[in-house]
Design a protein that fits this description.
Elements: H1 2-12, H2 16-19, E1 24-30, E2 36-39, H3 47-61, E3 74-77, E4 89-98, E5 101-111, E6 140-144, E7 147-148, H4 150-158, H5 163-191, H6 193-217
Helix pairs in contact: 1-5, 5-6
Length: 236
């Protein structure tokens, strides 16, 4: 299901960095805490840990208002301090309901080639605060029960240098979420919630065993790493 979400986003995105460089990811996350259930095979491995943190922050921000979340709501977020990477990685998070119950969250990420800021693309060694890098979005609903907030989208696009590309990338993300919801419903209809829940638990148990085995195989010792920088990006 998650890999089909990847494919839908890949085939419909406007930007080569998303469709060809594959700087994006799609996944399914636990309803109660946002922990990763699965990420698509065609997404960046980096997002395995990052996107579950994003979904977790979305849940935390709405913990007192989760009852207000409705099917086909979509939340947009790119705040790097709320489980993000940088402002150009824009994420969409969508609650997934099965038979009237919140069963999971669907989410994806896409590197937008520009989201404002002091320079095109958002990368500049002359900036010294996040506000110079682009438009910062906290978790806010860009769609409510399937109805897109055109005013909010217009505000976001007004801060992008090539809005025609950005709206194409945004719609590709929305389409991927739609594909994920449709395919996940078909999966649950076929096998039932209990069976799928058991599979998720088994996959997590096996993943823990594998990870512990990899860590145990490392020789005992202290490991350090250093990376030099030519400057701090602020002072000459």
């Amino acid at each position: 299901v998650a890999s089909e979400m990847d494919l839908a986003q890949e085939q419909t995105s406007f930007s080569p960095i998303i469709s060809e460089a594959m700087d994006r990811a799609n996944g399914i996350y636990a309803a109660n805490n946002g922990e990763l259930i699965v990420q698509g095979l065609r997404g960046l491995p980096l997002f395995v840990g990052v996107m579950q943190a994003t979904v977790g922050h979305v849940i935390e921000r709405h913990k007192d208002r989760l009852h207000e979340i409705r099917p086909d709501d979509v939340i947009i977020i790119n705040d790097p301090y709320l489980g993000g990477t940088h402002l150009m990685d824009v994420r969409l998070v969508k609650p997934y309901f099965y038979k009237g119950k919140l069963w999971a969250w669907l989410a994806n990420s896409a590197h937008w080639a520009d989201i404002g800021g002091s320079v095109a693309g958002g990368f500049s060694s002359d900036t010294w605060e996040v506000h110079q890098e682009g438009l910062r979005l906290p978790p806010i609903r860009i769609a409510r029960e399937g109805k897109l907030d055109d005013d909010l989208l217009a505000l976001i696009l007004a801060n992008c240098r090539v809005p025609q590309e950005r709206v194409g990338d945004f719609k590709a993300q929305m389409a991927a979420l739609h594909v994920g919801g449709r395919r996940l419903t078909a999966l649950l209809d076929r096998y039932g919630v209990d069976v799928v829940d058991e599979v998720i638990a088994e996959v997590r148990a096996r993943a823990e065993v594998q990870m512990r085995a990899h860590i145990a195989a490392l020789p005992d010792g202290r490991y350090t790493f250093e990376a030099p920088m030519d400057s701090d990006g602020i002072l000459d």
